[in-house]
Amino acid sequence: MGSKTYIGHRAHLHAFADVTIGDECVLADNVLINSAAHVPFAIQEVRSAGTISIGNRVFIGQNVSILGGVTIGDDAIIGAGAVVTRNVPPGSVVAGVPARELR
């Protein structure tokens, strides 16, 4: 995790693969970062996991879910409630389920 990064209340990080978070990011309340395909209910081998990379100066709104295998570019904005299933280009704004580029 980079410097000057804020992580809100009730944020969850399920790191079954590498997760990196850049500098000066804001992760709002209830953000879920899940590098695996699922959260096992019982301790078991995770068979599918992908790295997650969050760039610098990224804003992630409340109740966002970020799934494994995703890179979020610098200066991106993720709208509240989005489910991020694919890469987000630098400087873009995404929202929705699944997240789609708005700008």
Structure commentary:
This protein is mostly beta strands. It has a single domain, classed as Hexapeptide repeat proteins (UDP N-Acetylglucosamine Acyltransferase, domain 1). The protein is about 0% helix and about 30% strand. The protein has strands at about 5, 10-15, 20, 25, 30-35, 50-55, 60, 65, 70, 75-80, 85, 95, 100. It has a six-stranded mixed sheet with strand order 1-4-7-10-12-13, with no helix packed on it. The mean pLDDT is about 90.
Instruction: Compute the CA-based radius of gyration.
Output: 13 Å
Biggest β-sheet: count, sense, barrel?
Answer: 6 strands, mixed
User: Which stretches of 5+ consecutive residues score pLDDT under 50?
Assistant: none
Q: Determine the mean pLDDT.
A: 91
Q: What percentage of amino acids are in beta strands?
A: 25-35%
Provide the structure class: mainly beta
Key phrases:
single chain, 103 residues, mainly beta, UDP N-Acetylglucosamine Acyltransferase, domain 1, four-stranded parallel β-sheet, 13 strands, 0% helix, 32% strand
Helices and strands, with pairings:
Blueprint: E1 6-7, E2 12-14, E3 19-21, E4 26-27, E5 32-34, E6 52-54, E7 59-60, E8 65-67, E9 70-72, E10 77-78, E11 83-84, E12 93-95, E13 100-101
Parallel strand pairs: 1-4, 2-5, 3-6, 4-7, 5-8, 6-9, 7-10, 8-11, 10-12
Antiparallel strand pairs: 12-13
Describe, in short, the structure shown.
This protein is mainly beta.
